[in-house]
Every structure is written in structure tokens, then in C-alpha cells.
Amino acid sequence: MKNDLSRFNTLPYTNKQLSILVILRVAVGWHIFYEGLSKLLNPNWSSLAYLMDSKGFFAGFFYELASNPSVLKVVDVLNAWGLLLIGLCLMIGLFEKITSLCGMLLIGLYYLSHPPFIGLSYTAPGEGSYFIINKNIIEFFAIAVNLYFPNSRIIGLDRFIYLAKSKK
């Protein structure tokens, strides 16, 4: 029997295209998952410093989140668990569309909190020199690729959900 993924392929991707899309989905998923896991495993982690260091047009919104201890606690839980679950779902190919949208929303909020614009400086040292485009916006668009070039119905747990629905 020919070792060929095309028998599972209901979308017009070649095996190489599908492989790259799955690798991208898993790599981004791993990064997001590990960010969430590291926050959950650190009992002293809080988003307070990050939120208070916000700059740009939406800084007031992020300051408001940080200024109320009850809201901050909810933000911390949602952030850590959101990262963990979004990353896990991306890696295993589960609920691809909603997971991608949630991931884009969360990463988009990080970008809006710390936009890489001229004249803005942050307390924490940056990982590089950025102008308009930074790692958050790149990850945002990597997730968008996953949203617009879905592949979890071919390689992922969504495949089993899709097959079960199509049998009904």
C-alpha cells in the first residue's frame, strides 16, 4: 500500500503543504501551551507588572484590569489556562476554528498591550529590536494561517469528530 496522506485529504493540499501546516500548528501550539504551563507552575506569577507596563492606545484598559485585585486574579487565571488550553488544542488539532480565533484574540491583546512603536519603552528588556512587527504579530498571523488553511480534519482529533458527524 502506498504511504500517502492524500486518501485522508479532503482539502486541496499536497502532502508537503499539509505537513508544513501541521508542523506550524503544532509548533505554535507548543509555544502557547508551554507559556501557559510555565505560568501555572509558578505560584508567584502574575500579569500585574506586564499590564502596568502597557503603552499605546489601549494602555488605560490594561491599567484598569491590573488596578482591581479581583479582576487581576480572574485575568491571571484566564490568561494561564487560556494559553494552556489553546496551545493543547492546537497541538492535537481539536476545535481548530474556535481555538484559532481564541488564540488570535489572546495574542492580539498582548500586541495591543505592548505595541512595538517608536517612542515607547518598556520596563522589561525586549528580546530584540522591533518596529511595528514583533513576535506577537508573527504568532498572530501564524495562527491565522491555521484558521484559513484548516488541517485538523485531516491530521488531528477534529478528524474523528468530522467523521462521526458525517456518518450521521
Give the uncertain stretches in residue-range form: none
* Class by alpha and beta content: mainly alpha
Could you tell me the strand content as a percent range?
A: under 5%
Shape: globular
Oligomer: single chain
Total number of strands: 0
Helix % is 55-70%
Mean pLDDT over the full residue set: 91
Query: For the terminal residues, how far apart are their CA atoms?
Result: 29 Å
The radius of gyration computed from the alpha-carbon positions, rounded to a whole number of angstroms, is 19 Å
Q: How many domain units? A: 1
Question: What's the order of the H and E elements?
Answer: HHHHHHH
Structure, described:
The protein has 168 residues and is an all-alpha fold. Helix content is 64%, strand content 0%. It has one domain. The chain has seven helices and no strands. Helix 1 runs antiparallel to helix 4, helix 1 crosses helix 6 (135-148) and helix 4 packs across helix 5 (96-113). The mean pLDDT is 91.
Compact overview of the structure:
With 168 residues, this protein is mainly alpha-helical. It is built from seven helices and no strands.
Could you give the topology of this structure?
Layout lengths: L14 H27 L6 H5 L6 H9 L1 H24 L3 H18 L21 H14 L9 H10 L1
Helix pairs in contact: 1-4, 1-6, 4-5, 5-6
Features:
168 residues, single chain, 7 helices, mainly alpha
